[in-house]
Amino acid sequence: MRLAVLGFCALGLFGCASPEANQVATEQCETVGITPGDPNFAVCMQAYRQSRREGALNQNYHNAINAVPDDRRRAHDWVF
């Protein structure tokens, strides 16, 4: 049981650093003038990856809250 939980945690951690996310972070860092040779490049990459993760987490949270859309046409459909 513990091995399965650890396995899923490891998959989750390795899944966060996708090549697409790294490419987007690299492009964003280069846009602000931080190149791969810069000593602050790793910090910039981490910041943009974290920002992307937080954005996805917020979007998923809001999607979960509003899982069932409100249908205003049936606002007074009472059941007795």
Structure description:
- The chain is elongated, with a radius of gyration of 21 Å.
- It has helices spanning 2-16, 19-31, 41-65.
- The chain has a domain at 34-65.
- Helix 2 (19-31) crosses helix 3.
- It has 80 residues and is mostly helical.
- It is built from three helices and no strands.
Give descriptors for this structure.
mainly alpha; elongated; 80 residues; single chain
Overall structural class, as computed from helix and strand content, comes to mainly alpha
Mean pLDDT: 77
Using only C-alpha atoms, the radius of gyration works out to 21 Å
SSE string: HHH
Write the layout of secondary structure elements.
Blueprint (H helix, E strand, L loop, with lengths): L1 H15 L2 H13 L9 H25 L15
Helix pairs in contact: 2-3
Brief characterization of the structure:
The protein has 80 residues and is mainly alpha-helical. Helices cover 66% and strands 0% of the residues. It has a domain at 34-65.
